[in-house]
Structures are given as C-alpha cells and as structure tokens.
C-alpha cells in the first residue's frame, strides 16, 4: 500500500521571527527533496484539514486551549516564552498541524494508505497538557495517538520520538494513561533538561551524550526500544520524527547521518508489520539544517515505504 504525505501550504505562514530556526523554509526543504528524489510520484499527497477545537481536549486542558485561542493575535505577536510566540497565522497553522495528524489516523485506519508522514509545522512534542513551550502549541502526536486509541478502540498504542530533544510534552500527556508506551532518545543534558532516564514501561527514556554517533544510537534502539516494543505489541505506532540529531544540524551535538533515520524507521516498520498491520503515523518535529532535514525526511519516507 501507499505512504501518504499530509501537508498544507498555510503552515508556511506561521512565523516566530526572521532568524528563528523553526522557519517556513523547513517545509519547503522537505518538499524540494521529495521532488529531487522522485518520491513525489511514489507517495500519495493530501491536504490537511484543521482539527476541531473540541478534539484538542483529548490531550489538552480546556482552559489552556481557551488561553491559546484568546491570545492568538490579529496583528503583531504574542510572546509565550523566549522561544515560542504566535503571529496572526499561528493558530490556523497549529490547528492544521494537529488536524493533519488526525487525518493521518483516519487514512491509515481506513486502509486508504499503509502509513503517513505529516509534513506540517508548528511541531508539537514539547507542548504539555496545559503549556506551550519549545516552539510547540498543541501536541500533534499525542492528540493523534489518543484519538486512534479512543475512536478506533485500540488497546495498545506506541509513541516513539527520535528528536534530539526529549518529548516532554508527550510524556506529560500520556504517562498516566493506560494502553500507551512512550520511547524517546535524546541528547542529555539538553533542553528541556529535567528528564529522568527510564527503562521501565510505559516510559522508555534513553539519554544520549553529546558524543553519540550512529553506532551508539542504533545500539540504544536495539537495547532499549525494540525489546520494549516487542513486549508491548503495539497495534499502531506513532513517530515524533525530529531530524535535529543530524551531524549537520547546529541545534545539537549528536552525529547522526541520513541513513540512521532510514534504519530506525525500518526497525519500527518491522514492529508495526508484526503487531499492527503495518500501521504507522509519523509527524514532523525538529530539524533545522535545511539540506540535511530534506535528505533525512526522504530517508525516513523510504523507510516507511520499505525501499
């Protein structure tokens, strides 16, 4: 079956300042590499729809959602923290990003596509149930996973996160919910800093030091993620796909290469094929070196396809 790419041009309109790393050019970099690689003829492309406001309550406190809506500016900017701000286009882009993840679940569960990658922004994995932070407003991956579990009555859902930053928001939202497994690799010490290593389900946190290269990253996946995933037997896998651990990305000090993203995706696809009818939904998180981001995203998509 086909891999779907879900995006929307209005996600380009969200801006947090001229020199902010979470920039619209990130999406263009991925689309350019899709064309250059020829994958634009292989994948099926969809336009995202905005999430319904009430669906945000699956993962977020109602008062927090109201706070975001109430403070979305009609002009100028609204600063949430030093790294995170809203412009007039931000709320719409955030609703489209969350909506893309929900659309992806429906497309995969209804067998229109085998797996999906949401090429949208703003990202989401730092957004907690009642807090925006780290460039994130709504937690797209947590919303999609909770939606899949509740709407389609799944018993076991796994979320994995290979962004260089820990998915603190995702952990915050799912840590006390039954039927979820969360696995995260991340540079440590590094933003968001106060994270506890854990090798016990439902939270598998694997910190990586700043010297980590491909071999050590892959060994961490083999040692920590894969045994936990095999034991859990997920009926669906959700991927927070951040590409900022790449050696060319100045956001971090890890040294991953394009092929590492293909490799880890292939490992996850094997798990999904074994226990979840191949069902995977992936959502873009970080990745700020534009050329490396585009190449890494293509490697990730190739892993989903099985090339």
TrEMBL record:
GO terms for biological process: epigenetic regulation of gene expression. Residues 20-303 form the Histone deacetylase domain. Pfam families: Hist_deacetyl. It comes from the Bacteria. GO terms for molecular function: histone deacetylase activity. Belongs to the histone deacetylase family. This is Acetoin utilization deacetylase AcuC. It comes from Colwellia chukchiensis. The lineage of its organism: Bacteria, Pseudomonadati, Pseudomonadota, Gammaproteobacteria, Alteromonadales.
